[in-house]
């Protein structure tokens, strides 16, 4: 059990978060239940901001909303003074609903629709990260129509790809995102953007090398590749990039085995790499943008489940089934993500048995944890999964027509519902009336 943020074990031997007893929260709000430690989210935002301010002269932190975005989260990010990455019309809409200043939005995506581009332009989003030549061409025609001049960056594939422990430098072109370093389209796009500067304001370049990354070296490699590229652009076209966006990707601790660098180490390291690379190529320091998602919200979230059926298969394994699963957390089924669990109502007890935590979906692959070590489990115990803040609610679905759980923000002993639990009525809300419908 990794206790982070405001989590602790209270006198009743229950897990507590944000000053709230999780067992009481499960009683009051039902299960499954997502709970977010508001203090920890805010602290992570501040740590990123302060680390960047103290190690780099001009920068901006943009929270990558795709990790977890609802109106309350957009409002929190605005209160903390961060920008916000959005990747769809729906995310733009959510941010605007929350009163988020559109000029602090940055719009990403490899296949933005006409409608989404128009929506972004009309809303006045601050930056658009252009992903292809055809998108730039469409943007040029739409920005004339809408009479807006967007600020744009071009997304580059730096040929460094990193995930957790491994990174590869491939010069790879085989990704659906961004412009290849030496692709003909890349130069066409740069020249076109420069030529059409009345219509678009090209300010620089973006890259994003992966997610759940534990090493710092791949970021330095990517910084170096980006500067070599920006120097080449300057030489060939006279355009000097004034903004460099190095994306997100810092990993978090899902289990004890995970050892990511701290936010401070990560930000200082990238800042240093950027300053070094700029010096080496005699390049003026660009504004540095970073786009963390998981490392802001991931460890701040937990999910509570109620234990139902326990099934022993002698000599093979013990299944402990909970009242949620792949519909509220698709990550184990989708890419073998590993989580740590505990019993919230027996948080002080030592693990004594091994179990496989299964969900309730009609899908054999609906396993949340292959091997969990828990105190003796009984029906109706409250099982907690840690570090579920990122990419869980965001990817939740209604498979088997299960309503999506509520989301709580907890802080200083108080819980507030930031997304209510879906009801059965919500589930049929979009269905058109049928002959015998009541
Ligand atoms: C997903 C993504 C991020 C955030 O990645 P994390 O691993 O959650 O930090 C940032 N920028 C871009 C362009 C992304 O696609």
Characterize the biggest β-sheet. Answer: 9 strands, mixed
Shape: globular
What number is the mean pLDDT? 96
What small molecules accompany the polymer chains? Answer: pyridoxal-5'-phosphate
In terms of quaternary structure, the protein is single chain
Parts with pLDDT < 50 across at least 5 consecutive residues: none
- Beta-strand percent range: 25-35%
Helix content: 25-40%
Radius of gyration: 23 Å
The count of β-strands is 24
Derived from helix and strand composition plus strand pairing, the structural class reads alpha/beta
Q: What's the end-to-end separation, in Å? A: 48 Å
Q: Number of helix segments?
A: 12
Give a topology summary:
Layout: E1 8-9, E2 15-17, E3 20-21, H1 22-29, E4 33-37, H2 38-55, E5 59-64, H3 71-79, E6 83-86, H4 89-97, E7 105-107, H5 114-123, E8 127-130, H6 133-146, E9 151-157, E10 160-164, E11 166-169, E12 179-180, H7 184-195, E13 201-206, E14 210-213, H8 217-237, E15 243-245, H9 263-280, E16 287-290, H10 294-297, E17 301-313, E18 317-322, H11 331-335, E19 341-343, E20 353-358, E21 367-374, E22 382-386, E23 406-411, E24 414-419, H12 424-428
Parallel strand pairs: 4-23, 5-6, 5-16, 6-7, 7-8, 8-9, 9-12, 9-13, 10-14, 13-15, 15-16, 18-20
Antiparallel strand pairs: 1-2, 2-3, 4-17, 10-11, 17-18, 17-22, 19-22, 20-21, 23-24
The structure holds pyridoxal-5'-phosphate.
Residues 64, 66-67, 85, 108, 208, 211, 247-250, 291-295 line the site of pyridoxal-5'-phosphate.
């Amino acid at each position: 059990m990794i206790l982070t943020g405001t989590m602790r074990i209270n006198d009743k031997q229950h897990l507590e978060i944000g000053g709230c007893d999780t067992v009481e929260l499960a009683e009051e709000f039902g299960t499954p239940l997502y709970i977010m430690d508001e203090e920890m989210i805010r602290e992570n935002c501040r740590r990123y901001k302060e680390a960047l301010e103290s190690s780099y002269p001009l920068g901006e932190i943009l929270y990558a909303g795709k990790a977890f975005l609802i109106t309350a989260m957009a409002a929190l990010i605005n209160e903390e003074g961060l920008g916000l990455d959005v990747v769809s019309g729906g995310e733009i809409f959510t941010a605007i609903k929350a009163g988020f200043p559109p000029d602090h939005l940055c719009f990403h995506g490899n296949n933005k629709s006409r409608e989404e581009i128009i929506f972004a332009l009309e809303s006045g989003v601050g930056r658009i990260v252009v992903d292809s030549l055809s998108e730039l061409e469409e943007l040029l025609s739409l920005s004339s129509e809408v009479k807006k001049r967007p600020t744009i960056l071009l997304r580059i594939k730096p040929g460094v790809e990193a995930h957790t422990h491994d990174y590869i430098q491939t010069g790879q072109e085989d990704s659906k995102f961004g412009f290849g370093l030496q692709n003909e389209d890349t130069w066409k796009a740069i020249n076109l953007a420069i030529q059409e500067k009345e219509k678009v304001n090209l300010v620089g370049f973006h890259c994003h090398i992966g997610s759940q990354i534990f090493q710092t070296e791949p970021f330095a490699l990517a910084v170096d590749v980006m500067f070599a590229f920006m120097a080449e652009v300057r030489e060939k076209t006279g355009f000097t990039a004034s903004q460099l966006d190095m994306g997100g990707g810092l990993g978090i601790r899902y289990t004890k085995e995970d050892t990511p660098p701290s936010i401070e180490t990560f930000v200082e390291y990238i800042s240093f790499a950027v300053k070094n690379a700029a010096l080496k190529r005699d390049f003026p320091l660009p504004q540095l943008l970073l786009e963390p998602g998981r490392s802001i919200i991931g460890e701040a979230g937990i999910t509570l489940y109620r234990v139902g059926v326990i099934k022993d298969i002698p000599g093979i394994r013990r299944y402990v089934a909970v009242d949620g699963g792949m519909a509220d957390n698709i990550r184990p089924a989708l890419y073998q993500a590993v989580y740590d669990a505990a019993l919230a109502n027996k948080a002080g007890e030592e693990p004594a048995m091994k179990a496989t935590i299964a969900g309730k979906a009609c899908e054999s692959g609906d396993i949340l944890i292959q091997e969990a070590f828990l105190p003796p489990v009984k029906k109706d115990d409250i099982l907690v999964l840690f570090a579920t803040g990122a990419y869980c609610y965001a990817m939740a679905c209604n498979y088997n027509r299960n309503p999506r759980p509520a989301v709580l923000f907890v802080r200083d002993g108080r819980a507030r519902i930031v997304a209510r639990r879906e009801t059965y009525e919500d589930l049929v809300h979009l269905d058109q009336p049928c002959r015998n419908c009541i």
